[in-house]
Amino acid sequence: SFLMESYSGTGYTTANGATDTIGFNELSNGLLYLNPTLNYASNQFVLTDPQGWGAGAHPSIVQAGFINAPRTTDYIADLRAGLKRDFESGPFSSVQFGIDRKTRNKTYFIGQDFLTLPNGSQTFATTPIGAQTAPIPTAALVNGGSCDPLAFMGVGPQVCYNSMYLLNNGYYTVFPTSLSSIASPPNWKVHEVDTTPYVQFNL
Q1: Would residue 17 count as lying in a domain?
Q2: CB atoms closer than 10 angstroms to residue 25
Q3: Cβ atoms within 10 A of the Cβ of 45, count?
Q4: Do the Cβ atoms of 41 and 48 come closer than 8 Å?
Q5: pTM value > 0.70
Q6: Which of 84, 114, 185, 201 is the most buried (most CB within 10 A)?
């Protein structure tokens, strides 16, 4: 499994594209109610890197999306060995003794990839990597191309599309973060062994 982000906007980086003036007021329940002036369901919205996040990488990348693919493996084993000795007389009826051994191995790995937009002649030597914008294909649109999940806070209809359709049909090129200068979260592993001897006297 993985977590996927897909970005769209009206232009590449904050220096391009439309701007919006957003008013707001506070409702009686404390919720902020927004009043945008931009039509977020307009066909001027395209696949792009609206904040220019990928420009800080080396090589420079048009980051139109991102994938996080964490994987955790956890192994736990418990082994107990013991003996019991019964007594016919004395203050104790029996005694038990032995050893308990627990082993745990846990590993965490996270794979990360930039999603760029193919530009036909793209190579990993191209700067920046990926086309700056690409239209959202009609086949990827959901609910006629617009939906309104944030109506409760005043945000009007927005462009809605199936990002998995884009990934599965060649509208994205996957570029591993390991090939760039972007620091990746560290992978880690834990190896733990607990050994506990015990003695138990029974009345």
Answers
A1: yes
A2: 10
A3: 24
A4: no
A5: yes
A6: 114
